[in-house]
Amino acid sequence: MTLDEFLGIGVTKTIGAHTFQAGEIKAFAAKYDPQPFHLDEEAARRSVLGGLCASGWHTASMFMRFDALDRMAAMKGWQGAGPAPEFGPSPGFRNLKWLKPVYSGQTITFARTGLSHRPLASRPGWVMFSIRGEAFDPGGDKVFEFENAMLVKVGDRKD
Amino acid sequence: MAAKKWAYEDFEVGASLDLGSKLVTAEEIVEFASQFDPQPMHLDEEAGKASVLGGLAASGWHTCCIFMRLMCDAFLLDSTSQGSPGIDQVKWKKPVLAGDRLTARSTILGKRLSSSRPGLGFVSMRAEMVNQRGESVFELENTGMFLSREAAR
């Protein structure tokens, strides 16, 4: 298994699907994003969004859940030479777009595409790994996308 | 309904808004991570210390959510906000560790009225959160949509 294979460079992988129920939409919003269209069906119907929908941060956080679980499974499943690469922290993200509302009751499918990796001169043995994250509604329309990068400890491997 | 305090007209380019502060507890770091980012350095003190983050550290998405709540309480809930199409950029600059107190501030970078939808305007902001040592831990740039006072009437 090469590092490219491990990181899924050039590959789009479905990492999970989640049905956003009204109760969890409201519970998340009450803590982090208490705008009326995330908290109350009636207020949401009257709003620009037209119905109860998840906070955009809720959608993004659910992507993270599936991505974290997938990464941890990948580390466990490492079959290449030497120790498994280890995922580290992320310096941030860019171009996050909430393209459509995620409405209560919708099942949203999450996907990750490995874009590239490059060695870090400042941290020998680590690479910066770039991905694109996306989420799709039941009709196949994209509701969410962003570009993210994270550190991966790869040791002195050369592939 | 009472008029909202913040409409499109009320955002002045160059103005800096104090968004308040929030103590980040170990309990809430673990609670968020259990649901949304179950990596060891966000779930366990020892695993956090052993990681490059140096302690039990909040998920970056938790930090985003903490910022969102501060912004809601500071002005967004009392505004004519019509949501946001997205986030241009977020930088997680330093780890946010259990016990840190984050203080948030947002600066208005620019604003323009929509050409296609009368009464709607776009307001661009750059926000920052600093910890109790004055270190910048988080930066965010985004554009929010707000109705004009007249359109919100």
What is the percent of helical residues of chain B?
25-40%
Oligomer: heterodimer
CATH architecture of chain A: Roll
Shape of chain B: elongated
Radius of gyration of chain A: 18 Å
Features:
heterodimer; A: about 160 residues; alpha+beta; Thiol Ester Dehydrase, Chain A; six-stranded antiparallel sheet; 5 helices; about 30% helix; elongated; B: about 150 residues; five-stranded antiparallel sheet; 5 strands; about 25% helix; about 35% strand; Acyl dehydratase (chain B); MCH/BMMD (chain B)
Structural commentary:
The complex is a heterodimer of chains A (159) and B (153). Chain A is 30% helix and 33% strand. Chain A is an alpha+beta fold. Chain A has a single domain, classed as Thiol Ester Dehydrase, Chain A (Roll). In chain A, strands 1, 2, 3, 4, 5 and 6 form a six-stranded antiparallel sheet that branches. Chain A is elongated and about 60 Å long. Chain A starts with a helix and ends in a 6-residue tail after the last strand. Chain B has 153 residues and is of the alpha+beta class. In chain B, strands 1-3-4-5-2 form a five-stranded antiparallel sheet. The relative contact order of chain B is 0.24.
Could you give a short description of this structure?
Chain A: Pfam families: MaoC_dehydratas (PF01575). The complex is a heterodimer of chains A (159) and B (153). Chain A is of the alpha+beta class.
Helices and strands, with pairings:
The complex is a heterodimer of chains A (159) and B (153).
Chain A: H1 3-7, E1 12-19, H2 22-32, H3 36-39, H4 41-46, H5 56-76, E2 86-87, E3 92-98, E4 107-119, E5 126-136, E6 142-153
Antiparallel strand pairs in A: 1-4, 2-6, 3-6, 4-5, 5-6
Chain B: E1 16-23, H1 26-36, H2 40-43, H3 45-50, H4 60-74, E2 86-92, E3 101-113, E4 120-130, E5 136-147, H5 149-152
Antiparallel strand pairs in B: 1-3, 2-5, 3-4, 4-5
